[in-house]
Amino acid sequence: MAEIVAIKRSTPEGPVWSSLENGVLRLVLANPPANALSIDTMAALQAQLDGAREDSDVRVIVLAASGSVFCAGHDLKEVTAHRSDADRGRAFFELTMSRCSALMQSIVRHPKPVIAEVDGLATAAGLQLVASCDLAIASDQSTFCTPGVNIGLFCSTPMVALSRNVSRKQAMEMLLTGETIDATTARDFGLINRVVPREYLTHIVAKYVQTIVSKSPLTLKIGKEAFYAQAEMGLAEAYDHASRVMVENMLARDAEEGIGAFIDKRKAEWKGK
């Protein structure tokens, strides 16, 4: 897998558009103006992520959106419509939260790196989506908030992803006030990696992608899985786990090739094994 074949596939329809080229699966939320995470949108996004798990043509996933809003969270009109159900919407609310939680976890547990390309407002579950990605690059026009408290609904599920990215004090500031922060503040908080001018956003994301795609796909898979696993462990357990992972990684053919290429001062040829 030394060279990436320029495979082109695209599906410009439905609430999530997808395209695959040069190892990059680009998923675009395409349900403006809010790009809300309706049941249909979550299902479409989940299907794309699931399909990419074992697809060797996919090396990196970029999650973007159309319009001026990256994602406004759950579809409140869809949610409200179910309040007239016999159970006042309980079953639908449980389905919505279950689907959303599964989606966010599938991003974290995905074997491929997932990068959020944010240009616009990311709010509530939309912010949760950004926080769940491995990397997040935002335009200088982007804003972020967890405004549930303003409408009597604390952003409890977005809180899970948010609190795993920023400090407790910063997370609680956002959750308790519901106020919007700009992209620079989001970067300072640790929610996103970089802030760039809007006109350079796609280009900067592509540079990150090119760098990541040049690495061993097996190494990326091993590393991402180990990173999130050790983060939930105590210090001693984390070192034990990471040591076991390191040994298995050292035995991989790609590690043997990479070390040999470094010593021989040549370009490594990854096999994904």
How would you explain this protein's 3D organization?
This protein has eleven helices and eleven strands. It has helices at residues 39-53, 76-81, 90-108, 125-132, 156-162, 168-177, 183-189, 201-213, 217-231, 235-251, 253-264, and strands at residues 9-11, 16-21, 24-29, 60-65, 69-71, 114-118, 121-123, 135-139, 143-145, 181-182, 194-196. The strands form two sheets. Strands 1-2-3-4-6-8-11 form a seven-stranded mixed beta sheet, sandwiched between helices. A four-stranded mixed beta sheet has the order 5-7-9-10. A hairpin with a 2-residue loop joins strand 2 (16-21) and strand 3 (24-29). Residues 1-5 have low confidence and may be disordered.
**What is the CA-atom radius of gyration, in angstroms?**
20 Å
Principal-axes geometry comes out as globular
- The share of residues in extended strands comes to 15-25%
Share of helix, binned: 40-55%
Function: May play a role in fatty acid biosynthesis and insulin sensitivity.
GO molecular function, one term: enoyl-CoA hydratase activity
Keywords: Fatty acid metabolism, Lipid metabolism, Lyase, Transit peptide
Family: Belongs to the enoyl-CoA hydratase/isomerase family.
Question: Which descriptors would you attach to this protein?
Answer:
single chain, 273 residues, 7-stranded mixed sheet, 4-stranded mixed sheet, 11 helices, 11 strands, globular, disordered N terminus
